[in-house]
Amino acid sequence: EVQFVESGGGLVQAGGSLRLSCAASGFTFDDYAIGWFRQAPGKEREGVSFISSSDGSTYYADSVKGRFTISSDNAKNTVYLQMNSLKPEDTAVYYCAAGAIATLNPYEYDYWGQGIQVTVSS
């Protein structure tokens, strides 16, 4: 069974930092691209970042470039999202997901975590 365990969310003031973790079981990260996505109330699910297991390349949405960093520890089947300089507009439920194609398009991803709340207060 494919299972994701997301952790590290919570409440933080604007300008603060959080690190999200996504630990997977039932498959190995090195066979997939791993993406982070978020969905705020009333908005579509948005691709935030991904990392390609094949070559380690990364990509970021324009809204988070320079503030967020994705990384992975394939031996632990864990992907991280370091979020710095957080803004209220970053408030959302954050999801990690795995797919065969490295893209920010959420429709290309096959396996999803349950999501974790990140709230940034102003």
Structure description:
This protein has 122 residues and is an all-beta fold. 0% of the residues lie in helices and 51% in strands. It contains no helices and eleven strands. It has strands spanning 3-7, 10-13, 18-25, 33-39, 46-52, 58-60, 68-73, 78-83, 92-99, 111-112, 116-121. The strands form two sheets. Strands 2, 4, 5, 6, 9, 10 and 11 form a seven-stranded mixed β-sheet that branches. A hairpin with a 4-residue loop joins strand 7 and strand 8 (78-83). The protein is globular and about 40 Å long.
List the helices and strands and how they pair.
Layout (H helix, E strand, L loop, with lengths): L2 E5 L2 E4 L4 E8 L7 E7 L6 E7 L5 E3 L7 E6 L4 E6 L8 E8 L11 E2 L3 E6 L1
Parallel strand pairs: 2-11
Antiparallel strand pairs: 1-3, 3-8, 4-5, 4-9, 5-6, 7-8, 9-10, 9-11
Low-confidence stretches: none
* Count of individual helical segments: 0
Helix content: under 10%
The computed structural class is mainly beta
Number of strands: 11
Cα gyration radius (Å): 13 Å
Rounded mean pLDDT is 94
What composes the largest sheet?
A: 7 strands, mixed
Series of secondary-structure elements, N-terminal to C-terminal: EEEEEEEEEEE
Distance between the amino and carboxyl termini: 40 Å
Which percent range describes the beta-strand content? Answer: over 45%
Gross morphology: globular
